[in-house]
Amino acid sequence: MPHVDSDTLALIALGEPAAGTAEQAHLADCEHCAARLAELSLVTRLGRDSFGDQPLSSPRPEVWAGIAAELGLAGQSPARPVRARRRLVPVLAAAAAVVALAAAGVTGWQLLRPAPPEVLATARLDAFPEWPGASGQATVERMPDGSRVVRLTLATPEERGDFREAWLITQDASALVSLGVIDASTAVLAIPDGIDLARYDLVDVSAESYDGDPAHSGDSIVRGRLAP
Length: 228
Known about the structure:
Strand content: 25-35%
CATH class of the largest domain: Mainly Beta
CATH topology of the largest domain: Immunoglobulin-like
Shape: elongated
Mean pLDDT: 79
Low-confidence stretches: 78-86
CATH architecture of the largest domain: Sandwich
Radius of gyration: 32 Å
Largest sheet: 8 strands, antiparallel
Number of strands: 8
């Protein structure tokens, strides 16, 4: 049989004898409907615990119609007996409170969520003649704390050398600074403070050997110029 409708689930949660044999059998086998009923039952308990036995006034017909429409309780109307209607009012109030708290939680999470990094520049990294088929991409980002990083992706058709190293190089190639080793096809490397990217605007990835020499090997795999 199809899922138990919302009206019937709401009445069952309220303790009304609304479930027939078919509905009871379906609830025993359907995790979806059982979960919905459990949620409605929890809201019912919250409503009853919040309001206790104090008398409740019946809402005006137009108020009831608006609440029923908002919660999708088709068929519920002011014509229902006052007893059932009064029992449902705390449930609806509790449900509204749950919805409001959930919305507040989402809003709070959005406010507390860290700001995304700001993209400052990007570069397409083209292969050197000795490395046909290699390619890469570099993205410079400013993090929420003000620091800068380079996000690198690198693809090479073959493995040569002992490791890969990323560099920032000046326009005239007169100066360079190492950003660190690339252990895989992607890396996030910090840019040292004080580096002027208007001057050090070339991103280079080289193949290096464990020879104890910290200088650039001269074997560049890919290189590209950063642009906003």
